[in-house]
Amino acid sequence: MAARLPLRARLPLRARLRRFRRDAGGVSAIEFALVLPVLLTILFGATEFGRALDAWRKATQLARTVADLTSQGDTQSPIATATMNDILASSTLVLRPFSSAGVAIIVSAMGVDLTNPGTSPPRVCSSVATTNATARQPKVATDLTIPPGFQLPGMRYILAEVTVPYTPLLGSALMKFVGNANNQFTFRVAAPWPVRAGQTYNGNAYNEIVLPSGASCP
């Protein structure tokens, strides 16, 4: 009795090619199913990174806007409370299309020591803040350093510090996984700014801005 050939060997060439194509298609489907989550992760990650970068840029722009507007002073000194409130409220418009909810702003008029401008910390002369933040106390700010370009004896400048909460569009589950109950993280930006207007006090050579309810640098 003649030995029977295996089924694959007895199939015509065309049938074997069709079976190969079906098998290859199945392998491709499995490979695609394995690769798809990786591709989606890369896509969503790139999208979220770009959005977060834009939010950080907006936070930086907010700090610079607040500092710039404050540095231009008012028709009176100290700056009127209503004027300062307008500056704080209108500046948040630069955050659009991101929400301004939860944004905290602290603005301080800073002074540099007359004797050791390169080594001494700056002094807070006057300070204001939004209702959800705390203004700095008028004293030497040991947690700050004088920025480059402002390290001159008696220099006066404005410092705007902003805190902007950011909620990821796609990564809220990840934020919860790493332990953030609010599903968000926070951008903190500080912008020093030269005084554009104001007036001199106590015989100092540099103009100074005095914030509402504050006093000039000693």
TrEMBL record:
<dbReference type="Pfam" id="PF07811">
    <property type="entry name" value="TadE"/>
</dbReference>
<feature type="transmembrane region" description="Helical">
    <location>
        <begin position="24"/>
        <end position="46"/>
    </location>
</feature>
<keyword id="KW-0812">Transmembrane</keyword>
<protein>
    <submittedName>
        <fullName>Pilus assembly protein</fullName>
    </submittedName>
</protein>
<keyword id="KW-0472">Membrane</keyword>
<dbReference type="InterPro" id="IPR012495">
    <property type="entry name" value="TadE-like_dom"/>
</dbReference>
<keyword id="KW-1133">Transmembrane helix</keyword>
<feature type="domain" description="TadE-like">
    <location>
        <begin position="26"/>
        <end position="67"/>
    </location>
</feature>
